[in-house]
């Protein structure tokens, strides 16, 4: 047996064609059944893993606003109570972003809707609660800065002027 008898047959273009012809070149006692079962098990594990990743991604999106709450608290603490342009802008952005997210819940979870993830209602509720927490923090910060009109003295402009009912003509002239 010389080396000229050994050669590589590259006439088969696809892997499927090579595996179909491999039965003719298989050693005695070799069976491809185990490989097809293994490919089926790997495909099933891959779909289970994909389903797990989709559910995990949905929970990551849902927990995002809640995870950002401690950072927002720290930023509002660092902004202080002074009324200047930067703290007001920070509070305005902290109020605007979650309000915008509250109105776009369905579009946020649209890419995650799949039959493998099931119902996304708990995810959406957690997402709504997290954003409501951030809105509540922004409103509290507006209150501590004194920009939220919640005292009677804040509304004096709209209170009608008191009318006198009685006039006194005699004063304290007893000397």
UniProtKB/TrEMBL annotation:
Pfam families per UniProt: EMC4 (PF06417)
Keyword Oxidoreductase: no
Keyword Transmembrane helix: yes
Subcellular location: Endoplasmic reticulum membrane
GO cellular component labels: endoplasmic reticulum membrane
Membrane topology: Multi-pass membrane protein
Transmembrane regions: 74-96, 121-140
Subcellular location, principal: endoplasmic reticulum
Quaternary state and interactors: Component of the ER membrane protein complex (EMC).
Protein's name according to its UniProt entry: ER membrane protein complex subunit 4
